[in-house]
Amino acid sequence: xxxxxxxxxxxxxxxxxxxxxxxxxxxxxxxxxxxxxxxxxxxxxxxxxxxxxxxxxxxxxxxxxxxxxxxxxxxxxxxxxxxxxxxxxxxxxxxxxxxxxxxxxxxxxxxxxxxxxxxxxxxxxxxxxxxxxxxxxxxxxxxxxxxxxxxxxxxxxxxxxxxxxxxxxxxxxxxxxxxxxxxxxxxxxxxxx
Length: 193
Known about the structure:
Elements: H1 3-16, E1 25-31, E2 37-43, E3 46-48, E4 51-57, H2 61-68, E5 71-78, E6 83-93, H3 96-105, H4 108-116, H5 126-139, E7 151-165, E8 173-178, E9 187-191
Helix pairs in contact: 4-5
């Protein structure tokens, strides 16, 4: 089975499972130019044969790290269904038209927040952020809010996908799918737990 199709089936199962607050939450691991790692949770906003998509401020720490070192890792952990899925691959910005289309679907407050927040930069006070937000809300009242130039999506084209399933006696089931390039066929290997 194609690992992307397998992942989509598992994601659908996780979405239907009580107790999983947001099945699209995934840990994104990046590294800076010196190789220092950083991880945080982002939300999956699209997945197809080309890869997995999330959106963010490109000037944030994660955006800067992806620019310096585009090799990233994504991890989904759903203990309620005894499953973990890991992806490794290269992240690249989505097209402007794709980013514009997604930005237009966001709630208005989220659109304003994308302009108001200088993500990952020091903030003197919460009031400073709230004042910026209020000023932008007045400026764009009754107007379409354009996508900020520093806000876009990243598509991670995976070269490695690993499925982990919990099993009794810690004899977990692990399937590793690999391919040498995004347009190459997948091969699958079972791994010891």
